[in-house]
Every structure is written in C-alpha cells, then in structure tokens.
Amino acid sequence: MSSTAFTARVVSFEEARRMVEHHAASLREHGDSRVTETLDLPAARGRVLAEAIVADRDFPPFRRATRDGYGVRAADTERTPAQFEVIAEIKAGQDAGAGAFSLLRGQAVSIMTGAPLPEGADAVVMVEYTAASGNSVEIQRSVRSGENFVARGAEARAGQVLVEKGRRLDHALIAIAAAVGKSRVEVFRKPRVAVLATGDEVVEIDAVPGPAQIRNSNTYSLTAQIEEAGGEAVRLPIAADETGRLRELLEQGFKCDLLLISGGVSMGKYDLVEQVLAEMKAEFYFTGVRMQPGKPAVFGACQVSRGAVAVGPTQGQLGSADISSAAPRAGAPTPHYFFGLPGNPVSTMVTFRLFTQPMIAALAGARPEPLAFVRARLKAALRTATGLTRFLPAVISGSLGNEEVELAAWQGSGDVAALARANCYLVIPPDRERIEAEEWVSVLLR
Ligand code: AMP
Ligand code: MG
Prior knowledge:
The protein is α/β, with parallel strands linked by helices. The protein has 6 helices and 29 strands.
C-alpha cells in the first residue's frame, strides 16, 4: 500500500451539488465540438437535440375551429335567438381557403373541430347552443369575435424556433418535431460512461457467491441510471481491493467520457480508490459529503490528453478514433471526470441521482436542469441527528393536494430490498432534529 496523500475535502450537500453544476456548465461550453448523428424521430427519444426545431409554417396554418358548431360573423349574433342560413359544411381537412367561401350577413357554415374557418366568419358558436332545421340554424347564444377558433400563426410563426438545441427529446418535444415534419433529427452522440465496481467480496451476477460474497448489483443499477440519464454504460470487470489491478482498470475507465467507481471510497484499510487516483495525479473537488446515505462520495478529475489515449478494454467498441464519443474531440488535455460512489447500493443510487446525473446530462449536451422536489405531508413524526442532509427511502402516496410521505422500513444503506418498498427519497435538512407529523416536507422522486 503506497502512501500517496490526498487532501480530504468534506463539503455540505449544497456545496457538492454546486461544484458538480459548475463542472457540468464548463463541460457544456465545449458543446459545439460534440459529435452528432442523425436519427429517425422515434429512435431519438431521450437524446439531446443538436439542432433547433423550427416551425416549417404557421401554427396553426389556418384559422382552426376548436369546437364543433357554426362559423358565423359574431356581430350577427348580438341578438339571440337568431335564424341563420347554412351555406356549407366544412369538415376537418377540407380546404376553405381564399375564395372557397365568404360569409355574408346572416349566413353560417356548419364546421367541425380542426376545420378551417372560412373568410368572413370570425367566431364559432358551439353546436350545443344551436338548433338546425333544413338549410337554416337557430343560434341561441351570442359569441364574441375570436371565440372558439385559433388564429393563424397564434401558436407559432413560420421560422420560429420551437425547441432549442440542447433540449432532451421527451414525448412532448417529439410531438413538436413530428408536427413540423422532422422525421429525422440531429442529436448528440451519447457519452460513454465507464462503470467500475470494486471489492474483494463482490462477484459477477451469474456467479454462485461464496458464503461471504455478494453479487455486483451496483454495476447494474448504475447502468440503468446511466441510460436513463442519456449515457451509454461501459461495464468494466470487477476490481479487487488491490492497487495494481485497480489502477489498470481505472486507466481503462478514463478512456470513456466519465468514470464511475462503486465502493472503495470509505475509510477502511482496503478502500484504495482515492489513494490510487491520487497516484494518478487526480484532482479531488470533494472527498466526502455531509449527507446520508452517500457520505464517502468523491468527485474529481484526471488530466488526460485525449489524443494520447490508447485503445481500450472493449476493443472495437472503444477504438482510438471513437474513444471520446460525446465530449470535445482530441487535442489539449481535458479533465476526465470521475465519481467515487460509496458501495452500499442505496448510497450508490442516491449519489448518482444527485451528483452524477447532471454531469452525464452535460456530457450529453443537455441544458442543466435543477433538482426538482415535490412536497408531501409527513405521516409520522421522525427524529434524526443534525449535521447531515438526508435522502431516506420513503413511500409517497395520497391524492392531489394531499400528498403524504412516510419512511420505508430499511436496515441502512446496504438494504437493497428496501428499495422495492420505496418510491422516493424523503429529504431532511441538516438542521432538523425532529419533524412533526403533518408537516410538509420535500421529497425527491426516484
Ligand atoms: P465500500 O463502499 O467498498 O466500503 O462498500 C460498502 C458496502 O457496499 C459493502 O457492504 C459492500 O459489500 C457493498 N458493495 C460494494 N460494492 C458493491 C456492489 N458492486 N454491489 C453491491 N454491493 C456492493
Ligand atoms: Mg469495498
């Protein structure tokens, strides 16, 4: 065991999060040199736009009726009931463009939701307030000009940017892309995120564990979280608690855009990750966070010249020209970020959620998003020691406006089974010793 020193830097949760956000922001400045690809729209879900989505025409492209009813001149409905002559029926999809129709005084068109309002008409009377008979209709309620249709271009003008570059495509943004005819979109390539599990006791999930061994669940929860965050996981073999092999695997991991290490960052004699990283001249932004779970979390970077990186562990996948899939191209040394996430499964997940996720989003080219908390009423009073920000597995339930939350039963950060009973994390600020039942508290959805 070598004795390379590194300076411990334990920070509050807020400071840790700020540091991550700061580095995420500096990563995004390299955005323009990121590698892009063009995908079919359905395949682009979850990907980050490398181009803006622009309205190809006015939205709506015509004066669109929003009700089934009768298109009229509003002025003709001042006194009701009134009798109107029905001169045409306009279905959705029917062209009522210039010259097709023009309403004169006392005339109406029968019109369907989504159909274009003809010239002369400036309102739609809902069918519920009419009585049709033959070629005429009785209008029973007056309407104001502009009622029950959307003016051409009111939603967006042709050429207007509807979605900016850097937004992650969810179903709503996919709808916008579809509406403007973007059947293929240019997106950033996914960042590659290496996952390195450490621990003499940790075995692969298809192995039969010995009496004192446990299966490597972290690599798999992290893979899932990486994918949810917009990255691509590169799983490395498990590193034993031994400096030589650990260093070898860390070096392999640094060939990816981001390296996640699980375990080996606590205070134990065989927690060697920080020591080996220090030998590799890593810079540590923090080496611990005043939080629970996740106190031993580490965040830092190694300066690596991207051009100089050799071919990696999963050759073919990690070819030298292809090493940096999303981050800036080869050239000047760039910081290769890493997170040392504590090995306890709940700690690993929570620290990923709070710290790693924004870095992956930034590497993917996405705009930063703040952590979003929801509020819920605490079901039963709870007591904790002060000093740590806590993110405790909990269950949120209740109804709209009456959301309730209670702690899930758990045996501490190693209790992976408890996560099946929980659906969120109850957040306890570091200065709270006791929180009463019925108090509104912050909850982070899982
Ligand atoms: P460490 O952070 O290395 O001190 O590990 C803390 C706890 O997490 C220990 O009980 C480990 O056995 C457990 N642990 C470490 N790595 C993993 C892993 N990859 N999957 C599941 N549990 C793990
Ligand atoms: Mg360990």
